[in-house]
Amino acid sequence: MAELDTFREETRAWLEENCPPGARGPGQVPNGSTKVKIANPDVRVWLDRMIERGWTVPTWPKEYGGGGLSNAEYLVLLQEMRRIGARPALSGFGTSMIGPTLLEFGTEDQKQLHVRRIAQAEVEWCQGYSEPGSGSDLASLRTRAEDRGDHFVINGAKIWTSGAHLADWMFALVRTDPDASKHDGISFVLLPVDQDGVTIKPIQMISGESPFNQVFFDNAIAQKSDLVGELNKGWTVGKRLLQHERSGMESLAAGAAASEETTVPDMAKDSVGEADGRIADNGWRSRVASYEINSRAFTLAQRRAVEEAKDGATPGPVTSIFKVYGSELMQEYYSIAMELRGWEAYGVDPTTTDQGDIEMQKQWLFNRASSIYSGSNEIQRNIIAKRVLGLPD
Ligand SMILES: Cc1cc2nc3c(=O)[nH]c(=O)nc-3n(C[C@H](O)[C@H](O)[C@H](O)COP(=O)(O)OP(=O)(O)OC[C@H]3O[C@@H](n4cnc5c(N)ncnc54)[C@H](O)[C@@H]3O)c2cc1C
After folding, report:
1. What's the rounded Cα separation, in Å, for the pair 214 and 231?
2. What is the pLDDT of residue 311?
3. d(CA 64, CA 48)
4. pTM
């Protein structure tokens, strides 16, 4: 404990000295993409300092650019960052998904190259899993990769590929043995996005934004040295990556380090009024109390998962529980926030210029998707039934 106290003191002092004002409070968190400019010089300074300390990926081994922190130290770091409002120096598909997967399944060369590049914010990734007709039933995917000796030639298409237009590399599930049973002929490969055989077409949403894309492969190339795990055994690698995505150490620890202060009761008091220090309306009081209890219980469950996990390791199929519960809790948060703001926030009034309302509406809408992406909550419930509770198929 004393060691952890010392670590806290040193960390606090280091953060105070090294986290510039422009990296505190809301703002940009870089993801390593070579295609996204870092607008604020403070953000660059913060990123460089964190890279040097290995704290862009605090629990990853030092030999691959990480900080080598234990889970307990990582929690302290996050709590101390939260105390001064410091944003993470780096986020993205690299730190949360492919990095931890490569640490488990990658060759030494892959770790030295790809994991190190992620830690040093030199690259951003995208996820080539879903295909038209293969979403929940992902193992039915049809994108083909033919073995040509030292490389694969890939043909087919992916869909809903978030951020492909801003990514440098893609990790993808491809079919390498069309004659094998559904789950057995799939391999997990890495490929650069900027090559002749890859075409990226944005999918425009009703909001006018295009966060995701359709990606077409027309004789695209993935090197054999970028095959992760064994040929035709990519399903195992791909499933493990989904566990990192659903509730990897990064998101579990961030949740576990969350402060117990909450804005929800204050939001409700502001909106419906206050009587004797309490929310003035019975219905709202009860709804906010339920939310608060569930939210705190969830934070404690995340904390327990972090404490029980081997340092830096993401838990297994129980991540599906975190995904279902976390996404539904988040949706309830935004529903409460929107209802409290009233009809203007829903965009009923198109002339509204209230940035708070506009931002809240965006978040509320985006979070409808959180029970769909990385496997819908119905699919997570199937996984929980089979893999956590051991119920028959
Ligand atoms: C915001 C967002 C970002 C995304 N980003 C990416 C990305 O970067 N890369 C990527 O590869 N994919 C991405 N996806 C795609 C996502 O993984 C799929 O949308 C998801 O897996 C569901 O597949 P589907 O859309 O084809 O729906 P379907 O599989 O057609 O499902 C339709 C409905 O049927 C239900 N259903 C299907 N099968 C079952 C079953 N066996 N039991 C019970 N219910 C079932 C589902 O729960 C769902 O409600 C993203 C999706 C969203 C919304």
Report:
1. 26
2. 85
3. 16
4. 0.95
Residue 344 annotated in active site? no
For ligand 1, atom 48, the nearest C-alpha belongs to 376
With a 6 Å cutoff on the Cβ, whether 369 touches ligand 1 is: yes
Helix (H, G, I), strand (E, B) or coil at 100: helix
Where do runs of H (alpha helix) occur along 248-318?
249-256, 264-272, 282-308
Per-residue model confidence as pLDDT tens digits over 243-288 = 999 999 999 999 988 876 668 999 999 999 999 999 999 999 999 9
Residue ranges of domains in the chain: 2-97, 125-232, 260-388
CA of 261 to the centre of ligand 1 (A): 34
CA-based end-to-end distance of the chain = 46
CATH classification code of 125-232: 2.40.110.10
Does any ligand 1 atom lie closer than 6 A to the CB of residue 129?
Answer: yes
Instruction: Tell the CATH superfamily of the 260-388 domain.
Output: Butyryl-CoA Dehydrogenase, subunit A, domain 3 (1.20.140.10)
Q: Among 97, 160, 330, which is best to mutate for testing ligand 1, by the most ligand atoms less than 8 A from CB? A: 160
Separation of alpha carbons 321 and 319, rounded Å: 5
Catalytic residue among 52, 245, 344, 378: 245
Per-residue pLDDT, 260: 66
Ligand 1: residue of 372, 377, 381, 386 to mutate (most ligand atoms within 8 A of CB) is 372
Contact yes or no for 190/114 (Cβ under 8 A) = yes
CATH of 2-97, one of 2.40.30, 1.10.540, 1.25.10, 3.40.50: 1.10.540
- 62-108 pLDDT, tens digit each: 999 999 999 999 999 999 999 999 999 999 999 999 999 999 999 99
Q: What is the Å distance from ligand 1's center to 220 Cα?
A: 25
Say yes or no: CB of residue 271 within 6 Å of ligand 1: no
